Structure formats: structure tokens, C-alpha cells
Amino acid sequence: MNILLVPGLGNSGPDHWLSHWEKALPAPRAELGEWDDPYPENWIANLDAAVREAGRDVVIVAHSLGCATVAHWAKKGGRAVQAAMLVAPADVDSDAHVPPQARRFGPMPMEKLPFASMVVASTNDPYADIARSEAFAKAWGSRFVNLGALGHINADSALGSWPKGRALLLELARG
């Protein structure tokens, strides 16, 4: 299994679980560029290049705006991957939940993903209502995991290396 990490807006700082995973697994981080002012067409192209470079049996682990990028990439016929773990997808269709630069990624694709997937969400995520996260999971054909009140499941959630997340990733990869 080749894990490819796909951060969201701001590129997940050093205390983010994704950064811990990058060091511990080791797993490469997709270099999407324009971390604070992204454009979907660039992020989708850069994700495609990162998946190609990752090789076979790729499992994507995306966070926040990275989830919308994965959904757009899949809709545009992105190459086959084994699975995707989509953590705290940002609701790019909501003015109330995301900043303007994230709204560029709307509308959120709502088609079934062509690979196994899991959406992991929180009941008090400021970037997406839990019902909306569950709707993403249903539309994408993903298993839905509600973690309870963990905010945006980021560095502010104080998850460290997030062992529960790693266990969920292994469940997904095993099918």
C-alpha cells in the first residue's frame, strides 16, 4: 500500500496529524502548491501528478479542501487508486462554512467515487455541518464515520499522531 497525503488549505502545519503521519509512516505529501490561494484546476492537475508518481496500490488520505480536490479529480477521470480516506471534507458550497478561496472548488461533486472510500467527520466542524458530511459520504458511496465533537479534525483537535485515524486507514485499506 502506497499512502499519499493530500492536505487542505494552508498545507497542514507541524502539529497536524497529517504531518505526524508523513514522518511516521513514511508517506509523501502531495505538493498541490498555492496553499493559501488555491485554484481547483491546478490542485487537480498536481494531485494527478502525485498519484502517478506514487505508483501502484495508492491509498489517498485527504483532509478538508483536499477532499474536494479528490472528488473533482475522480470526476475528471483520475487514475485508479485503491481507496481514499476523506477526513473533515470542507463544504465548498457554503458561504457560511468556508473562506472565498475554498468556494472556488464548488460545486462539490456528488457522484459515486470509482474506488473504496471513507468519510470521517466531526459533529462540530466549523467548515461543514455533520449532515452535509454525511450527504457527501452517501453521494460518494463512502463509509461514514462520525467521530463526535473533534472540530475540524486538525491540529486544534490535539490528536497528535491520531492512532484511531491510523486504525481507520488500515480498515479501509484491508477492504
TrEMBL record:
It holds the Pfam family Ser_hydrolase. GO terms for molecular function: hydrolase activity. It comes from the Bacteria. This is Alpha/beta hydrolase. It comes from Terrihabitans soli.
